[in-house]
């Protein structure tokens, strides 16, 4: 994608993200219609639906040849990453949205033939927009984010869900317990997109998740890339953007140790 096309799609995407966020804020105290999906804790609300519909309708009207991968069903069924693809999570952190009315984000990535060109993560209630265009740096609102500094493993903070410490099919629990005891601290924010933004901002040094969909990470990958961060699957291989993956995004200075000494050693 050339710079001019990237810039014009970026401006349009940003406008829609800010508009969708404003609508959510204005309706934040309205009564919610909540349903469940795969299990009783997998929540979805009419706000998730309405927000995704807003994006899908606008994208299809403005860019009839663009494609959409998204969570709530208004996207396309894709078998390849060819073309210009919007990868959208209308509300990332629905559980936070329902229970806390904050700590959730709108996440929009735009990919061209599988390459991440634009990433936007909007922390709606805080009114903070993380954004990046490929090769042009990452920003928190108007402020450019610096390249990630060198970090020692022992002084790192990792974003990880507590399920990593429970019996699971990916990694030995004992190895994950050793990891948690070795690093400085762990956090679980409940929004994959905001955890990617946190890695890009350097307030956490890595985020790992067991089973995450393309819409959770598409924008985050672009933003993290722009500050020198690395994203792979949990075992160091390339992420497949057409399916769910266990994913690790982190400061490059802790990547090798994390993958070799923990993830690969503990792999089941
Ligand atoms: C979820 C959040 C959560 C992560 C889940 C995601 P949703 O997204 O990002 O932090 O642990 O795997 O599904 O359903 O709230 O958009
Ligand atoms: Ca969901
Ligand atoms: Ca999500
Ligand atoms: Ca969602």
From TrEMBL:
Its EC number is 3.1.3.25. Gene3D superfamilies: 3.40.190.80, Fructose-1,6-Bisphosphatase, subunit A, domain 1. One of its GO terms (molecular function) is inositol monophosphate 1-phosphatase activity. It holds the Pfam family Inositol_P. PROSITE patterns: IMP_1, IMP_2. The keyword Metal-binding applies. PANTHER family: INOSITOL MONOPHOSPHATASE (PTHR20854), INOSITOL-1-MONOPHOSPHATASE-RELATED (PTHR20854:SF4). Its cofactor is Mg(2+). SUPFAM superfamilies: Carbohydrate phosphatase. Keywords: Hydrolase, Magnesium, Metal-binding. The keyword Glycoprotein does not apply. InterPro entries: Inositol_monoP_metal-BS, Inositol_monophosphatase-like, Inositol_monophosphatase_CS. Mg(2+) binds at residues 71, 89, 91-92, 216. It catalyses: a myo-inositol phosphate + H2O = myo-inositol + phosphate. This is inositol-phosphate phosphatase. GO terms for biological process: inositol metabolic process; phosphatidylinositol phosphate biosynthetic process; signal transduction.
């Amino acid at each position: 994608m050339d710079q001019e096309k990237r810039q014009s799609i970026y401006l349009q995407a940003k406008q829609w993200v800010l508009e969708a966020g404003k609508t959510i804020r204005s309706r934040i105290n309205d009564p919610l219609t909540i349903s469940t999906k795969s299990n009783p804790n997998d929540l979805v609300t009419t706000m998730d639906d309405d927000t995704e519909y807003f994006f899908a309708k606008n994208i299809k009207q403005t860019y009839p040849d663009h494609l959409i991968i998204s969570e709530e069903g208004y996207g396309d069924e894709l078998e390849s990453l060819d073309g210009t693809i919007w990868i959208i999570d209308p509300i990332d952190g629905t559980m936070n949205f329902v229970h806390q009315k904050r700590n959730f984000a709108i996440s929009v990535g735009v990919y061209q033939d599988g390459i991440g060109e634009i990433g936007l993560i909007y922390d709606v209630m805080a009114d903070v927009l993380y954004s990046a265009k490929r090769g042009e740096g990452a920003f928190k609102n108007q402020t450019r984010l610096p390249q990630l500094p060198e970090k020692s493993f022992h002084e790192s903070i990792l974003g990880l869900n507590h399920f990593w410490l429970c019996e699971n099919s990916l990694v030995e629990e004992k190895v994950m317990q050793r990891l948690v005891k070795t690093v400085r601290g762990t956090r679980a924010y409940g929004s994959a997109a905001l955890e990617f933004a946190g890695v890009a901002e350097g307030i956490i040094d890595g985020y790992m998740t067991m089973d995450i969909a393309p819409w959770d990470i598409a924008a985050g990958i672009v933003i993290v890339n722009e500050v020198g961060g690395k994203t792979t699957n949990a075992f160091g291989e390339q992420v497949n953007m057409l399916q769910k993956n266990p994913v690790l995004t982190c400061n490059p200075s802790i990547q090798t140790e994390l993958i070799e000494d923990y993830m690969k050693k503990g792999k089941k």
